[in-house]
């Protein structure tokens, strides 16, 4: 290459670099100018609104509404946390707060104790499920919402709070000393049979991995040789806790998850760093449509390493990572900064929010665009749309009468009445209400409202609405009327037809009065179809092996 050409190329390259730097600088400056301009417009708008608007306005409230509306345009996970909500946000991430240790809910008459947490102040002083809270210290809270009541119940640890509650016809007084409350990530673990352990993982807050480790070690000391890990209905949480939980079952030095985003400091590869507790124990992981984020990291990584069989339903599909960014005046922003990728290389994010914004409608990744990846043993797995189980189990559909009895709180109220009429029951694994108890429940229902529409009735109703639009409706009306009469339900008959299903629902509710959250979970395992299939597979190692080898897919 001659000197003249080399010189020309050098000038061209240097010129290109200068121009690219100029345009990059200009683009950056243009964006900064746009940000400054729009902030100035927004501030001016609020100021002029405050001056000119006919009624008094609350600038804080208006700005918060504006911020929330702006962030909602991006994705559901990018959120603004004002200073007054920082304690609640901290509780969501750490699982810790100072209070009385009870779940509070709202019923027609006011706020009620829905569930006291075992071993915490509310339970130890004697508060019961279904106690209505009338006063907190000197404040009448009968017309307060749940959030307001919960705020009043919280406070510094080791401080007293005086409660007045209504229990049936009685008004009771309690002095409760607030304590530091750590909500359990593992609300229950135990043995399904002599050789099969079960761990319910409900959250991924601080110490989730420690709780799972402790449960696993304890179960192994009791002689288990196989394990069911249940992450159904677990919305996720801290990624590092998910990594530590995976490390309990796979060797040191294995890649677990990568986070990849726009900024270099959010790009990170998480690897296992410790010796596992048990890298060989046969495992089943249960998941469903409400298993998200960290739950999907655990389930997906164990699937990618062919370490566990997944049973249940396809998971939620949240492959986005959020980071907390501090703002001025002690506010915070939780912002999506990256996507995560599990060991096979797949990202399981189901909704493309960029496409959704551009098309002005929710865009889920279609099957035709899902890419194929491979597990360690060569099994095919797909990206997008969540983690698919190795063995699917249809979601249990309850009868309309069962839904109605639960939704109208008749199951809850009967459970409370049963509790005060019976001083004790058998253990959660064996308790079931008798036929005589069920007949008492049917009598108890007399005069109570619990109407509902069956699937057939809804179909006939839809048929009639469509038929009314056609010219010959009058000719077929009599036939539709006849069909409607034939499918109309009888509540009395439905109570007979669905007796066994309703008895199980009632039994689980009653167990909660005596054994709280742990008992409810244990009672629900007895006829859980996902759990039954997991036990069946774990008892036949050949089935597990056939699923986890490439030839099975």
Automatic annotation (TrEMBL):
UniProt keywords, alphabetically: Hydrolase, Protease, Serine protease
UniProt-listed CDD domains: Peptidase_S41_CPP
Boundaries of every Tail specific protease domain copy: 169-354
A biological process term (GO) from this entry: proteolysis
GO cellular component, one term: outer membrane-bounded periplasmic space
Limits of the PDZ domain: 98-169
GO terms, molecular function: endopeptidase activity; serine-type peptidase activity
One Pfam family it belongs to: Peptidase_S41
SUPFAM superfamilies: ClpP/crotonase, PDZ domain-like
Family classification: Belongs to the peptidase S41A family.
Protein name from the UniProt record: Carboxyl-terminal processing protease
Annotated source species: Algoriphagus ratkowskyi
